[in-house]
Amino acid sequence: MQTVAVMRAIATKSPSLAVATAMHHFSVATLFTLAESLQASGFEWAMLEAIASQRMLVSSAFAEGSPGQSVISPTVTARRTDGGVIVNGSKKPCSLSASMDFLSMSMALPAQDGGQRETIFALIPAQTEGVTVHPFWGTDILAGAESDEVRLTDVFVDDQLTVPANNDGGALDLLQTIGFVWFELLITSCYLGAATALAERVFQRRRTSPTVLSELSVRLETATLLLERIAMHLQHEAVNHRSLVGALHARYGAQDAIRDAAALSVEALGGIGFITSNDTAYLSSVCQCAPFHPPSRLSLADALARAAIGEPLRLD
Questions:
Q1: Considering the domain boundaries, does residue 162 fall inside one?
Q2: Can you give the pLDDT at residue 65?
Q3: Domain boundary residue, one of 145, 168, 191
Q4: Is residue 236 part of a domain?
Q5: In the list 143, 182, 184, 312, which could disulfide-bond 251, CB 3.0-4.6 Å?
Q6: Same domain, 151 and 30
Q7: In this predicted model, which residue has the larger pLDDT, 84 or 46?
Q8: Can you give the residue range of the structural domain that contains 254?
Q9: Kind of pairing between the strands at 118-125 and 102-109
Q10: How many domains does the chain divide into?
């Protein structure tokens, strides 16, 4: 509940900061889940303590969101070597690319003995030799999130900083599932904040009709309640694949409410409000970015339809 409120509040003042820090919080939440799991080596708790005590930032380089590609199929590749793996590839966009202390990401290892290729997670220090940042983000909208390209060229990652994922045929393991649930909650809260900032400008106008204000209130409250339901589930219930199905429905429903609230706010502010302040166009544009984060609703249409009749959610 506090997560939704805090991310929303940050986004009312700086949507870019909210989006950037959402990636950090998502990465840390995933690392925290790993530290509590049976896969943990104890090293994870030491990393979490260092990140918190030294105020380090962790960027996220997981889902690509490329057309026609599964969000759990990494484009970055790795090969085994003594004591670790050698990593090559790039992630774009990658938020916090200019400020990160660590890069959290997934990568693909070649198949062994004719089997499927293996996916592993890694936490890579940003100053590691071979990690470079290059311009990519070409719009002013959310430019402060530092979402540029991170390239990895023959980067060595110690085995201690990696953990295997179990994503058999598109099915998610528990670590991935919890990570995705956290991501849907955090990132959608950011866009709710942007829509709230736009609506605040409408509420501050004395001549706005009660009908418009009530409609705005309904849209914003709908999105808030949907996100708070995810937060309550994370806090009080055991997470499984059905949790992600619920989180995705909540995100897409909140997305629609956010879009409607933004459109209604722009219309209520009118042409003069649009012309005399850059905020109206900027915040409206930010709200349109909510559907861009993977997994998109269109890409999951078949998977969600199957999940609705009780089948496991698969992000093939």
A1: yes
A2: 53
A3: 168
A4: yes
A5: 184
A6: yes
A7: 84
A8: 174-307
A9: antiparallel
A10: 2
Neighbouring C-beta atoms of residue 201, cutoff 10 Å: 18
Question: 313 pLDDT exceeds 90?
Answer: no
Model confidence pTM above 0.85: yes
Q: What is the CATH number of the domain that holds 211?
A: 1.20.140.10
pLDDT given at position 227: 97
Residue 67 has pLDDT above 80, yes or no: no
Q: Calculate mean pLDDT across residues 40-48.
A: 80
Antiparallel, parallel or unpaired: β 58-61 and 102-109: parallel
Give residue 111's pLDDT band: very low, low, confident or very high (50, 70, 90): confident
> Which two three-digit tokens encode residue 293?
């984060």
- Looking at residue 97, what is its pLDDT? 96
| Integer Cα distance of 4 and 22 in angstroms | 11
Buried b (16+ CB within 10 A) or exposed e, 111-148: eeeeeeebbbbbbbbbebeebeeeeebeeebbebbbbb
